[in-house]
Amino acid sequence: MMMLNLLVASVAMALGAFVAASPRRAAEIWGAQRFERLSPERRPTFVRWYRAFGCLLWLAGTLFAVESIVFSNYHH
Fold first, then answer.
1. d(Cα 19, Cα 6) in Å, to the nearest integer?
2. Residue range 41-65: average pLDDT?
3. Which terminal residue of the chain has fewer beta carbons within 10 Å of its beta carbon, N or C?
4. By residue range, what is the domain housing residue 35?
5. What letter does residue 71 receive in the DSSP assignment?
6. How many domains, in total, are found in the chain?
7. Predicted local distance difference test score (pLDDT) of residue 75
8. How many CB atoms lie under 10 A from the CB of residue 67?
């Protein structure tokens, strides 16, 4: 079970790192339709929110991995 948790955490961290490092590219990939419909002055705000989402996703993955390792012997 811990290996599955670590796999999920790794995927979350990888996606979060990608979105945080390249939010414009991530917005073009996953939010292409919405991104294209936005006016040019609203796009920077949209990209900033994508970066914030990436940071939160990476942090959630990290915390999930730490929790899985630290409490691996604790049964709920």
1. 20
2. 95
3. C
4. 2-70
5. T
6. 1
7. 64
8. 13
Closest CA to 2 of 58, 73, 61: 73
The C-alpha atoms of residue 40 and residue 32 are separated, in whole angstroms, by 14
**3-class DSSP assignment, residue 75:** coil
Residue 16 resides in a domain:
yes
Whether 48 is in a domain gets the answer yes
User: Is-contact 60 11, C-beta < 8 A?
Assistant: no
Angle at 64 between CA 4 and CA 14, to 5 degrees: 75
The per-residue pLDDT of the chain, averaged, comes to 91
User: Rounded to an integer, what distance in angstroms lies between the CA atom of residue 26 and that of residue 17?
Assistant: 11
Q: Distances in Å between the alpha carbon of 36 and those of 42, 46, 50, 72?
A: 11, 11, 15, 45
H or E element in which residue 8 lies: helix 2-21
- On whether residue 75 sits in a domain, the answer given is no
